[in-house]
Specification:
Blueprint (H helix, E strand, L loop, with lengths): L7 H6 L4 E10 L2 E9 L3 E8 L9 E7 L8 E7 L4 H18 L6 E6 L6 H10 L2 E2 H6 L16 E6 L2 E8 L12 E7 L12
Parallel strand pairs: 5-6
Antiparallel strand pairs: 1-2, 3-4, 4-5, 6-8, 7-8, 9-10
Length: 203
Amino acid sequence: MRSSPLPQHEFLADAYWFTAYGKNVEASCGHHGNALLSRYPIIYQENEDISAHWLEGRGLLHCVLNAGKTMPRLHCLNVHLGLFERWRKRQLAAMVARVEALIPPNEPLLIAGDFNDWHRKGHRYLCDALRATDVFTTVRGAPARTFPSFLPFLPLDRIYVRGLDVRDARVHYTQRKLRASDHAALSAELEVLPRPSHPLPER
């Protein structure tokens, strides 16, 4: 099968989705990073370098979506954190600092990605610092187990939200021959509430 000349995120988006991509690592064989596909226009995007060590190039892709005239702006953060806890602490602190500095408390926030946080220390820190909730803890009582995909027992991947109503959350498994990743995929059904007729005051 002939490979597509388009980058992977553009190939998946086709002509129906808006896309953003933050390149984190480039090598002789190609590059990789974080990507976001959205049905809503992406009105802002920035990929912040949160690498804690030269061995691991890590980025935080921050996008703002325009969900419609009656809806507040939706902030989406896409991350893949480091393998070692001391690196993740620095990366989580950078994420919290960015949210506090750039995202108003009355605008909804979604954070998703591979947190490599099997001991759930980062989970507790993030929930407390940002007043965010894990969608699977809300629906199922505990973070989803996603790794390895053929027999998942580690909760590495998360979807956190703030200012959004969680309607449902699911883990998606595939047959071994169809598996495209060593992680299971996550999805959540969320509701964005229309903005009030009188905007909330900024803190």
